[in-house]
Amino acid sequence: MKTLIIGIGGMTNGGKSTLSKALQKRLPNSCIISQDTFFKDDSVVPVDIHGFKQYDLLSALHMDRMMEEVETWQQDPRAFTASHTGVGQLLSERVDQQVYVLIIEGFLIFNHRPLNELMNKKYFLQIPYDTCKQRRSSRVYNPPDPPGYFDGHVWPMYLKNRKEMEEVVTDLVLLDGLTEREKLLSSVLEDVTADIEALRQG
Ligand SMILES: Nc1ncnc2c1ncn2[C@@H]1O[C@H](COP(=O)(O)OP(=O)(O)OP(=O)(O)O)[C@@H](O)[C@H]1O
Ligand SMILES: [Mg+2]
């Protein structure tokens, strides 16, 4: 059995979850671990002097638990994938030909070095400020964004996190999140499929 770990990072509302779910549906033996499911409880996330909850920081996330989840996949990709997707292995494949794919998606996945180091391929979805603000305003988060949150917390933290990420990560594949969904999917799928084929051959 062989394995491939793909990171789908990017800014808020860049389209990470949409792309990840579409990829997962198309890639046999794949599953997703989503960073959004590891947020700490609201009661322990601090507020800044303006009263904005400091959610867009690594410290607002249980990264230790997220790493444990990834390790569980690494220990037995087949069992993990079967239990998370309800789909068993492809019986037609020879065991040594099987490639299990883990899709790790989230807005700060490349800022956590131990996670970052595990990824074979790193995609980063970016969109312009106006689109980001517009898409974000059409969503309802839990807890909901208070007035002024985008400009007071989300965008400045994105700029800070992006700068920190670029200081450590060099092998990002930048994706234009304005690209039509199907086109985005087919370009990433083509790229990943080539990696999977190379693993199979190798
Ligand atoms: N390629 C696309 N073109 C246009 N709209 C898109 C595209 N991809 C996603 N969207 C829309 O943008 C919004 C955000 O998408 P999605 O939830 O996938 O982003 P995300 O990066 O996971 O966001 P979050 O920061 O909340 O995790 C949704 O309303 C979705 O329908
Ligand atoms: Mg998402």
Structure description:
By secondary structure, the protein is an alpha/beta fold. It has one domain: 3-Layer(aba) Sandwich (Rossmann fold). Strands 2-3-1-4-5 form a 5-stranded parallel β-sheet, sandwiched between helices. The longest helix is centred in the C-terminal third of the chain and has 21 residues. It binds adenosine-5'-triphosphate (ATP) and magnesium ion (MG). The site of magnesium ion has 3 residues, from helix 1.
Keywords for this entry:
202 residues; binds magnesium ion; 7 helices; Rossmann fold; 43% helix; five-stranded parallel β-sheet
Name the beta content range: 15-25%
CATH topology assignment: Rossmann fold
Main sheet overview: 5 strands, parallel
Gyration radius, to the nearest Å?
18 Å
Helical amount: 40-55%
User: Class by helix and strand content?
Assistant: alpha/beta
Strand order of the largest sheet: 2-3-1-4-5
User: In one word, what is the shape?
Assistant: globular
Overall pLDDT score = 95
Oligomer: single chain
- Which runs of at least 5 residues are low in confidence (pLDDT < 50)? none
- When the domains are counted, the total is 1
Order of helices and strands: EHEHHEHEHHEH
Question: What's the total helix number?
Answer: 7
Catalogue the ligands: adenosine-5'-triphosphate, magnesium ion
Number of strands: 5
The first-level CATH class is given as Alpha Beta
Q: For the record, give the distance between the C-alpha atoms at the N and C termini, rounded to a whole number.
A: 12 Å
